[in-house]
Write a structure and sequence with these properties.
The structure holds three protein chains of three kinds. Chain A is mainly alpha-helical. In chain A, 79% of the residues lie in helices and 0% in strands. In chain A, helix 1 runs antiparallel to helix 2, helix 3 packs across helix 13 and helix 17 packs antiparallel against helix 19. Chain A is globular and about 70 Å long. The two termini of chain A are 39 Å apart. By secondary structure, chain B is of the alpha/beta class. By secondary structure, chain C is mainly alpha-helical. Chain C has one domain. Bound molecules: sodium ion (2 copies). The site of one sodium ion (NA) has 8 residues of chain A, from loops. Chain A: Keywords: Cell inner membrane, Cell membrane, Membrane, Transmembrane, Transmembrane helix. Chain A: Pfam families: DctM. Chain A: GO terms for molecular function: transmembrane transporter activity.
Chain lengths: 432, 322, 169
């Protein structure tokens, strides 16, 4: 079988299975079977082997702790304190709670590496409150979902850890590179909120006094300390990512026990939920690894490089194409397995076109982050819609409206490498 | 050879047999060049079949430990050069082939390989791991790579480094005062940049090709080992061939390995010089006195290991070769 | 969450599946808790020079994660919580929907059967492999593969029985 046939067969079978509602993790593994059967130099051993080996990696170790820490932040009241700080900062703008929703996601993104915890934690508090105050239900759900994507773009980020680890790219530089794109995305969402507020006459509040802001800030300090631990720890090499995430867990646990928002019983419950979430989110990493291994075995990446370079679309065209491919795969697959499948396929193309590895990575990460809110498979959208008690397709229109300016930012990131490269160039030039 | 190609009927019947070779490195790396040489020679030394080698480079099929499992299983990978430590989980005895401080110098290494000393181990490997050693590449020296300068034994104390899986590596580095840990080769880069470790020990060529210099810009020439990198063929692939072809495989493997060792010696230095010239790496000398202290501190651990593993006779045999 | 209350009319397979499920929840959660303790120990042992730097924690943590993932995947089969894509409309008739779900269960059974049989063979070979640091047999880790397979098969068997019963009603 040639590269093209294999690629078509793998993706074709996968898509058919996924559309038939076979769970994504199993669909990835099942799609490997026909290709394996048709090739007598590969057997099901390869499937088992790739799945097993991919789990036995120290990179994935930080994932459960990042999820646990984020979940503990929600339970221990840290999220609430960040929200109060956001209220005193942007609550007076037209569409106050909408801005609070976006702004607190930016803060939360800075303390956590996970977008799903952002959608769940902030959504639980803000969606009901927004609806109470007369905001449109669809809009409340959509803005909660869309703002949560910043969780994996603004550092720390599970995605960047996995990305840097699997492709040997400096994680510290990736963290820095994500800051400006993340803030731009936040600003674009706040602009959208402003326009919504003006058109729908959403409520406006008085500006909080400086004392209120200062009080909220002081109360939020323990929560705001977490990024120092995680970011400082990882960027400066004090701790490994796993250790940093474990320390974040211990720290939030301590805060929770001290202010009595968490007790042993509650902790065990959160631990159990995290364990199950870890299982199902990482299981597809294994089958994705097998899938991606078969693609390389049949030299699909090389064929793709040859195809793309024959098209002569130039580095800018290629950045846009890379974004498009990640956006498309993000429609169906979670970000981590998508990195494992497409990262290795597209990386050689980027290198061939002279795109800087960090620029390439940020394009990929931002595009995949959008996948968190794009149906048919968008975890953050699902979570927000569930909290807002509304079916996903009803909120789609608002999601698209919020996403359009964000897509514009993505295109800017593709065409102007400096948006991503400025901070790493300034702070960690040795990695460039 | 060209004559046979023109002899249409004979050539038409000549069967084409495909072999999958795998490497973590690119097309100029000595391992890959060894594969090229093997393909050339194995077709020169026999007329029965045409052996076509497919090259799976740049980690496309995984890393060396993965190649070993696939070869041992008899699928996907048929030919690969591996560090012996990769198969020591299955065949512990092979670790001695590549033990730190085993050889006095490159010439000594070559004389040992030319002797019959490793015969028993070669048979053991076929029996336990279902792979066959058909030649020996390698031949470069391994030194310390770090994210801070190391110039003497003092600097080495508490140095957290990645070592290969075979336990002897951890024992030796523990004995000289470093803190060894075992990490998969493809995770070393991120382990250094995230602070899990501060460096590793490796050949010059690996240092350049794996881009370790980006996270660990210091290369210290302590030269604690001269490598032996067996060229393996899976037993299943080997058994597909007739005795005549098998003999050609062994001959071609041996010569390709020797060729690869020569290439590695030259290329490693060139690559390191390039890095130094462009300011990406700093090379530090390690004085003879420090080398002697390294050896003195490591030797008891080495001897203890050799004795426990039952290799005393073999070890003495190697040391006895002049 | 799953209703694991055992009533009078519960079939044997459901009883078995529910008991397994509840024990799995406890085991899997403890593994993650143990993982947290190990990493904490690792940090402490590094920060306090008097304590020996523990090399084995890193390796054993990875092995525990392998178990957390495989057991979590089996739990996901029981809870039917593996992520799916919902794009096509659901079949209109109840029977159609049941047949649809049975087909998905069938495909998942193929997957689980491969992991049981090939996973068993894979783990058996690992018996001879010794881990790099802790020097334990890799069978302790590799057996997670067939264990996942068998557990999933049991849970899927229960699902199929429930679905066929529903179709019969
Ligand atoms: Na973040
Ligand atoms: Na999506």
């Amino acid at each position: 079988m040639g590269s093209n046939e294999v690629a078509m067969m793998l993706f074709g079978v996968f898509l058919i299975l996924v559309f038939a509602r076979v769970p994504v993790a199993f669909a990835l593994g099942l799609a490997c079977i026909p290709v394996i059967m048709l090739n007598d130099t590969v057997s099901l051993f390869a499937l088992i082997d790739r799945v097993f080996i991919s789990y036995n990696s120290f990179l994935l170790l930080s994932v459960p702790f990042f999820l646990l820490a984020a979940s503990l932040m929600n339970s221990s009241g840290i999220t609430k304190k960040l929200m109060n700080l956001s209220r005193t900062t942007v609550g007076h703008l037209p569409g106050g709670l909408g801005h609070v929703n976006v702004f607190v996601s930016m803060l939360f993104a800075g303390v956590s590496g996970s977008s799903t915890a952002d959608a769940a934690g902030i959504g639980k508090i803000l969606i009901p409150e927004m609806i109470d105050q007369g905001y449109d239900r669809k809009f409340s759900i959509a803005i909660t979902a869309c703002s949560s994507v910043m969780g994996v773009i603004i550092p720390p980020s599970i995605l960047m850890l996995i990305w840097g680890g699997t492709m040997s790219i400096s994680v510290g530089s990736l963290f820095l590179a994500g800051i400006i794109p993340g803030i731009l995305l936040g600003l674009s969402m706040m602009t959208t909120v402003y326009i919504y507020a003006k058109r729908n006459h959403y409520p406006v509040y008085d500006k909080s006094g400086f004392t209120d802001f200062f009080k909220a800030f002081v109360i939020a300090i323990p929560g705001l300390m977490t990024p120092l631990i995680i970011l400082g720890g990882i960027t400066f090499g004090w701790f490994t990512p796993t250790e940093a995430s474990a320390i974040a867990v211990l720290y939030t646990m301590a805060l929770g026990f001290l202010n009595k928002t968490i007790n042993p019983r509650k902790f065990v419950k959160i631990l159990s939920e995290t364990a199950r979430l870890t299982g199902i989110s990482l299981f597809c990493v294994g089958t994705a690894s097998a899938f991606s291994w078969l693609l390389s075995y049949h030299e699909v990446p090389q064929a793709l490089v040859a195809l793309i370079s024959s098209m002569h679309i130039g580095p800018r065209g290629i950045t846009l194409m890379i974004a498009l491919v990640f956006l498309l795969i993000g429609l169906f697959i979670d970000a981590i397995p998508a990195i494992i499948i497409m990262g290795g396929v597209l990386y050689p193309i980027a290198l061939e076109a002279g795109i800087h590895p960090i620029h390439f990575s940020i394009i990929g990460i931002v595009s995949l982050a959008f996948g968190l809110v794009t149906p048919p498979y968008g975890l953050c959208l699902l979570i927000s819609a569930r909290i807002g008690e509304m079916s996903v397709h009803k909120v789609l229109k608002d999601v698209v409206i919020i996403l359009l300016p964000m897509l514009f930012i993505l295109i800017l990131i593709c065409l102007i490498p400096d948006i991503a490269m400025f901070l790493p160039r300034l702070i960690t030039p040795q990695f460039l | 050879n060209g004559q046979q190609d023109s002899a249409a009927p004979a050539n038409g019947e000549k069967k084409v047999m495909k072999i999958n070779a795998a490497s973590m490195f690119d097309e100029v790396h000595p391992f890959t060049q060894t594969y090229y040489k093997f393909e050339e020679l194995v077709n020169k030394y026999q007329d029965e079949v045409t052996i076509e080698v497919k090259y799976n480079l740049n980690k496309s099929l995984g890393i060396e430990t993965d190649y070993f499992r696939f070869m041992s299983q008899g699928e996907s990978v048929d030919l690969a050069i591996l560090a012996p430590a990769n198969i020591a989980t299955r065949v512990p005895s092979i670790a001695i082939v590549d033990m730190p401080l085993l050889f006095k110098d490159y010439a000594h290494r070559n004389r040992v390989l030319a002797s019959d000393l490793f015969k028993a181990i070669e048979e053991d490997v076929v029996k336990k791991a279902n792979v066959r050693i058909i030649g020996y590449a390698g031949g470069a020296s391994r030194s310390i790579i770090s994210n801070y300068p190391i110039t003497n034994m003092e600097d080495l104390q508490g140095f957290k480094l990645r070592v290969q899986g075979a336990p002897i590596w951890a024992k030796v580095f523990d004995a000289v005062g470093a803190v060894p840990s075992v990490i998969a080769y493809d995770e070393v880069y991120s382990a250094i940049q995230t602070g899990v470790i501060q460096g590793l020990e490796n050949e010059k060529i690996g240092y350049a090709q794996m881009r370790f210099f980006e996270v660990a810009p210091h290369y210290t020439l302590n030269e604690h080992s001269i490598t032996v990198r067996p060229l393996f063929m899976s037993e299943k692939a080997y058994n597909k061939f007739s005795p005549t072809v098998q003999a050609a495989i062994m001959k071609a493997g041996k010569e390709a390995g020797e060729f690869g060792a020569q290439v590695e010696l030259e290329l490693g230095q060139i690559e390191l010089d390039k890095l130094v010239k462009s300011g990406l790496a700093n090379v530090h000398p390690f004085s003879d006195a420090d080398k002697a202290e390294f050896k003195a501190r490591a030797t008891p651990a080495l001897l203890k290991y050799v004795e426990e593993a039952g290799f005393t006779e073999l070890y003495n045999g190697i040391q006895a070769i002049k | 969450m799953i209703d694991t209350q055992i009533g009078k009319n519960t079939s044997l397979i459901t009883k078995i599946a529910n008991t397994l499920y509840r024990s799995l929840l406890i085991i899997q959660t403890s593994f993650l808790g143990f993982l947290l303790i190990l990493v904490t120990l690792q940090i402490i042992s590094r920060l306090i020079p008097a304590l020996p730097y523990m090399l084995w924690t890193e390796e054993i943590s990875r092995f525990l994660l392998v178990w957390v993932i495989f057991l979590g995947a089996a739990i996901g089969v029981k809870e039917n919580s593996h992520f799916t894509v919902s794009l096509l409309p659901e079949p209109k008739s109840k029977l159609g929907a049941t047949i649809w779900e049975l087909s998905i269960a069938g495909l998942t059974i193929i997957f689980a059967a491969i992991f049981t049989y090939r996973g068993y063979k894979y783990a058996k070979v690992m018996f001879w492999d010794i881990s790099d640091i802790a020097q334990i047999s890799m069978i302790w880790v590799g057996s997670a593969i067939p264990v996942f397979g068998i557990l999933s098969l049991i849970f899927l068997f229960e699902t199929v029985i429930k679905l066929t019963k529903k179709a019969g009603e």
